[in-house]
Amino acid sequence: MQTVTVDKNFWELFPEAQLYTLVVNNMDNHAHDLALYQELLKEAFKASEKFLVEDDFKENFVISEWRDIFTQFKKKKGARSSIEALLKRVAQGKELAPINPLVDIYNSISLRYGVPCGGEDLDKINGDLHLGLAKGGEDFYPLGAQKSEPALPQEIIYYDLDGAICRSLNWREAQRTMLTEETTNAILVIEAVTPSQQERALEAIQELQAKIKDMLGVESELQIISNT
């Protein structure tokens, strides 16, 4: 069984894309050693500087490639990939503070490999997790929102029976499925939309799997989903 059900309309738009997923079960996501995660993020922050070699931020390859991808579907004005948001913090010298162990681990991998990585609490997902083009109007509550900011027609979203879970592919995640310290079962996703992103994404998901085992003491199940 696939961890994410990818709709036909997504493959029609991005036929060469691949999704790399990890399912983690029965974990303790409480931080028992905050300094450990602070150091993990600090080291990844430094390592990510290799992706920022151009004077003009948007000309860096990771940034420009994802911006080009984001021109190919409907999105909210200003929506950018999650890896751009992280690398922008690096460019501005704004270090990341720990959030919770699983989020800290995947943020560190995202920075080290220049790939977007997101995660959801499996126990908060209603039905199957889908990826595809929105019909428009799917409910979406970002962190701290008091009212819905629904998906646009033809926007790429992850969704379930209750609405959108992540808007604009990997731009912003919903509060209702976000990972917290109380999360025990989770799914993590890295997208590679172009063939040039696939090698980094595969290396990233493999290291992510190893880090989760090393730091949280649990195994995870890796799956690669493609249009074949």
UniProtKB/TrEMBL annotation:
Keywords: Aminoacyl-tRNA synthetase, Ligase
Name used for this protein in its record: tRNA synthetase subunit beta
Keyword Aminoacyl-tRNA synthetase: yes
Pfam families the record matches: B3_4
InterPro entries linked to this entry: B3/B4_tRNA-bd, Phe-tRNA_synthase-like_B3/B4
Entry superkingdom: Bacteria
Gene Ontology MF terms in the entry: phenylalanine-tRNA ligase activity; RNA binding
PANTHER family for this protein: CYTOPLASMIC PROTEIN, PTHR39209
Species this chain originates from: Lactococcus garvieae TRF1
B3/B4 tRNA-binding domain sequence ranges: 64-214
